[in-house]
């Protein structure tokens, strides 16, 4: 197989074409140089999120005693429900001032003219953490816990109406007890 | 001196401003949050009453004695404070004319020789006859045992032909209470 033979005129044509292509590539490279000349700065963005400690639910059901006869101590319980963020350390305390010597409060008879100052119109009551022997006192944070992050019973408070409270008038005796959840 | 005071004052102001700014920015977050709640504690005291009467003990009855013989039973009532009550005799007279039979121990209530007739009145000889839940002795409970009153009993004279011995009867009282 022999190489093809080129005429002089053909060689000139190839030379012109090669020159034109080279010029085009050079122009293209010059254009790209101008793109590469743009400056680039590096930066950073801090991304963070947080969950603040919070409690959304704090409630207690009614502490409902049976009929008091005075023959023996009468007890009843209320369950305190909370819903706090996981890990939140909380305390629960009574906020009402004692109506007689601590730790006592009074359930007062519901009737017109009834008075917490009248012996026959009240029953003395004290509260304690269920299963404990020590009574709760105003603002003393006896109940301490760590939240689980879900709605749950934080503690059960037991009320005790001591026996032998005589001379009371028949009727319904009640007190609204205030609690504070601190966290 | 004045320059020093001015410097101190400026320093204090600066510290206060700085601290104020820190608080505003929340660098010193408040840790103590609180929620408050309440619950009801409720108990009830039901009206309760008890009653008892002392033994009505008569002196010896002498059929030849023209005088009636008398005795009293003192009623003790223990009612919840503030509870109104009334005590009456529940039994129906079994001796006729509002009288009751005291029966000889071991005797027969149907035999005239085996019983003495007695009648009862409220509090004293001039009181109302107590029969069939009438003439209540009433008051209001105090929460502790109290003497509510007395039942007066009288065995009239002239009941002859009786056996000697001890005659007695248990009288039932009715205690009503509550509003």
CATH topological fold name of chain B? Immunoglobulin-like
Using the coordinates above, name the CATH class of chain B. Answer: Mainly Beta
CA-atom Rg of chain A in angstroms: 43 Å
Would you identify the CATH architecture of chain B?
A: Sandwich
- Considering the protein shown, what is the CATH homologous superfamily of the largest domain in chain A? Fimbrial-type adhesion domain
Q: Order of SSEs of chain A, N→C?
A: HEEEEEEEEE
Give the count of helical stretches of chain B: 1
Q: In angstroms, what is the radius of gyration of chain B? A: 39 Å
The overall pLDDT of chain B, averaged over residues, is 86
* Largest β-sheet summary of chain A: 8 strands, antiparallel
Instruction: Count the DSSP helices of chain A.
Output: 1
Mean pLDDT of chain A: 82
Determine the structural class of chain B based on helices, strands and strand pairing.
mainly beta
Poorly predicted spans of chain A: 1-5, 14-36
- β-strand amount of chain A: 35-45%
Strands of chain B, count: 10
Number of strands of chain A: 9
Q: Indicate the overall shape of chain B.
A: elongated
Percentage of residues assigned to helices of chain B = 10-25%
Largest sheet of chain B: 6 strands, antiparallel
């Amino acid at each position: 197989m022999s190489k093809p033979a080129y005429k002089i005129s053909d060689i000139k044509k190839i030379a012109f074409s090669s020159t034109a292509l080279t010029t085009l590539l050079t122009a293209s490279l010059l254009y790209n140089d101008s793109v590469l000349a743009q400056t680039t700065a590096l930066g950073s963005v801090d991304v963070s999120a947080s969950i603040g400690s919070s409690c959304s639910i704090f409630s207690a059901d009614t502490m409902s005693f049976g009929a008091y006869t005075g023959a023996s101590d009468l007890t009843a319980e209320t369950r305190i429900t909370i819903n706090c963020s996981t890990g939140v350390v909380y305390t629960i305390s009574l906020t009402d001032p004692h109506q007689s010597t601590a730790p006592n409060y009074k359930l007062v008879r519901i009737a017109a003219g009834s008075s917490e100052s009248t012996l026959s119109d009240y029953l003395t009551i004290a509260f304690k953490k269920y299963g404990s022997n020590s009574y709760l006192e105003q603002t003393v944070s006896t109940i301490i816990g760590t939240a689980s992050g879900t709605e749950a019973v934080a503690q059960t408070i037991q009320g005790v109406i001591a026996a032998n409270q005589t001379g009371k008038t028949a009727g319904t005796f009640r007190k609204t007890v205030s609690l504070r959840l601190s966290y | 001196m004045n320059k020093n005071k001015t410097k101190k004052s400026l320093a204090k102001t600066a510290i206060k401003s700085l601290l104020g700014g820190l608080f505003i920015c929340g660098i010193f977050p408040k840790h103590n949050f609180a929620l408050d709640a309440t619950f009801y504690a409720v108990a009830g005291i039901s009206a309760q009453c008890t009653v008892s009467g002392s033994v009505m003990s008569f002196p010896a009855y002498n059929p030849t004695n023209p005088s009636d013989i008398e005795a009293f039973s003192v009623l003790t009532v223990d009612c919840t404070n503030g509870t109104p009550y009334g005590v009456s005799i529940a039994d129906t007279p079994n001796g006729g004319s509002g009288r009751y039979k005291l029966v000889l121990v071991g005797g027969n209530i149907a035999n005239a020789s085996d019983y003495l007739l007695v009648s009862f009145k409220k509090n004293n000889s001039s009181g109302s006859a107590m029969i069939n839940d009438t003439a209540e002795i009433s008051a209001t409970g105090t929460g502790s045992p109290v003497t509510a009153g007395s039942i007066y009993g009288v065995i009239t004279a002239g009941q002859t032909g009786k056996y000697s011995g001890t005659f007695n009867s248990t009288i039932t009282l009715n205690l009503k209470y509550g509003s």
